[in-house]
Automatic annotation (TrEMBL):
Molecular function as annotated in GO: methyltransferase activity
UniProt protein name: Methyltransferase
UniProt-listed PANTHER family: TRANS-ACONITATE 2-METHYLTRANSFERASE-RELATED (PTHR43861)
One GO BP: methylation
Source organism per UniProt: Microvirga aerophila
Pfam families found in the cross-reference section: Methyltransf_23
Entry keywords, A to Z: Methyltransferase, Transferase
Amino acid sequence: MWACPKCHSVTEASEGREPWSEDWRCQNCGAGIEYRDGVACLAPEMIDSLSGFDPQFFDILVKYEETSFWFVNRAALITALLARYFPHAAELLEIGCGTGSVLMAIRKAMPRVNLTGSELHPSGLIYARERLADGATLLQMDARDIIARSQFDVIGAFDVLEHIAEDEAVMRQMHVALKPSGGVIVSVPQHRWLWSPADDVAFHERRYPRGEMERKLEAAGFRILHSTSFNSLLLPLMIASRQMMILRERRGIKRDALSEFQMSGWLNRVLSSVLRIEVGLTKAGIHWPVGGSRVVVAQKA
Ligand SMILES: [Zn+2]
């Protein structure tokens, strides 16, 4: 079920993949849904804001997502966790789906899942729609106001919550939007001591100390099924890279958030092989104590 984006009264979804038709009107308050370029905009007042992300990033991100060691292996881990913990999922929402690269990986791994992707900035959704064609419902939405009720089996947020000041409010919203046995898969940047100019330029509100994501999810009504670090084997390289960024910034050299993805093909292949081994070991049951990211799977308690 979906609620009215204006008055939050619960309404039945219209027939078909899109929750609303273009001529939908709320029976309670009369509000309609604003469509831009064929995308339902549930928080149109937020479209032009720069809160939490610079939408120009999407143009650069889209170049790296399909080949970069980090994106490719993060997607492999996400799809493995999805298949293990939610093998019967029928409805999945990814908040902050950006250009749709994770949704594409999920569609490939679990083609029967109905996919919905939301993004605050519709500029990412233009890429997502090109990549996914009719394979996903795409919405412009503020994650702090997920207006679905008991709608999804799984909600994913992959490197999204660290951009949002009210991360706990988002987790409570996810809880309401999930079906009774539904759950979440969340990845976030880990360890405060890894903070660097890369976090500033990416508009991160925080990196998560060990245990914080689990505590916040439990407070929002979830029970933890799986928690591990990601990007553990390459952590020494990441520390070195971030230290270089700090030194460069002290020397007044302009920072570039995506410099870590700009590398030669052979180096990317080497790093990807290492991360592929790590993901394989995670799938085999290893829980990594430290790493650049934390990945948590949790179910509605
Ligand atoms: Zn209404």
